[in-house]
Sequence to fold (136 residues):
Amino acid sequence: MKAAVKILQRLLLCSKEVTVMPRKALKPCKHPGCPRLTEGTYCDEHKLLHPERPSAHKRGYGSKWQRVSKAYLRKHPLCVKCLAHGKYVTATVVDHIVPHRGDHYLMWSDTNWQALCKSCHDKKTGTEDSRPVYSY
Fold:
């Protein structure tokens, strides 16, 4: 009986010491124009419209790509787009001329690669991603 009383006393003492952490503040949904507050990036209504992007490694840009792209940049040190405009800018990104979208041949074919500076690469991929061209 004394043991049970001691356990009960410990539980009562412990319950007084426990503090509840405040909840994380809700933030607005990232979908343009949506005013809903959410715990994540998007509200439940817009989660399906914005699927999470797989990691770079899962998209094929692992250690093999890092090694091969660095070798390509050593052979092609200047941005081809800037060079076409008469500017000499160091290339920092190996770009796929035709987006591979998971196609193994397009991913690894060096005839589908071009050396670009980050600025030119961002412009090119931004245009491709915002206005994709489909062929039937």
The mean pLDDT is 85.
